[in-house]
Amino acid sequence: MYTASSSVTAPPRPLRPLGAGGGPYLAPHAAPSAPGAVRPRRPAGGPVGPPLSGRLDLSGAQGAQLRMAIASVHRICPEFNPVQVLRRSGRSVLLVGSTGRASAVAKCLLDHSPAWSERFRHEIAAYRAFVRHRPPVRVPRLIAADPENCTLVIERMPGRVAALTRHPSEAPPRADVRAALGAISRVNAWRPAPGLFDAPLDYASRIARYHELGLFTDRDLGDLQKLLHGLAHAGGRQGMGQFCHGDALLSNILLSPTGPVLVDWEHAGWYLPGYDLATLWTVLGDAPAARRQISQLAQASGPAARDAFLVNLMLVLTREIRTYETAVQRAMRDSVSGAGQDRPGALSSSEEQRLLLRRLHDDCAMARRAVRAAVGTR
Hints:
By secondary structure, this protein is of the alpha+beta class. The protein is built from 9 helices and 11 strands. The relative contact order is 0.13.
């Protein structure tokens, strides 16, 4: 056994391309408030969530799983003292605790299927890269990592989450959107050292797959392929790439007086320009002013940047539609079986998801018209 006074990591592994998805993990999710209730504002400088106190429930089957996760953390960081479970899902568990006098967050993978394991290792590789090559935004400091057992321990950053949900039901404050856009723009302008990051998204394959699934029409396929062909010529031999966070949701941005903090880097890599902006545009459906600002920013560099943004927007919107169609079907099955009980007088979760899905379809139709207009001007 040894103390982890400095970064303790297992032997490095190379970065590999990965798919999209993921979520925040540096702050616990707050419980939804009652209709009409005023949610108290968190102090800007303090850590999100309750203070470091309480007990871990290690009883039962879930307790055994939790003990295994804690043991995997202690193998790489013996001084980690777990205090709370931030989040637990079928694929991972996140613990908040301390290492000495500092707060830390440990993330342990529970589902060791190849896809999730590679995604987890990609996130570890990103934090390792940030040790020597600091990005132009604040990121959590790596404390310890084990790619083989898929265990990660990082610094717990102070701040409040810019949004608690993937698709905020209310427009965020303009100052929060402005801070998020500023941080994302700095990331997109960064040029990390060659070889640190790969391209997580194969655009041609993703477009072809969505066409095979019936999510894209034949005309969508032809239009997007034409835009990709034009972008390949515009980029020359080096291609037209931009470094992106890969999951630029407001729920992955912590706001503090010392500046925004970006978390959840498991999808970071090289994309067509505007991928992060397309992600932000997609989740800000109730903030038309912010959407206009994002669109103007995405098109400021000329027609090629506009075309890249539109390709990204079609892919991101289609991915969200596919995700929430599955969620609506699951919610309908739960309502039939009586598994889910909603608050009296409030919208049911399935109804909220249906409304969101309708908005995503409207957004996708608007993006499709913009793609066709862009093809017509080539």
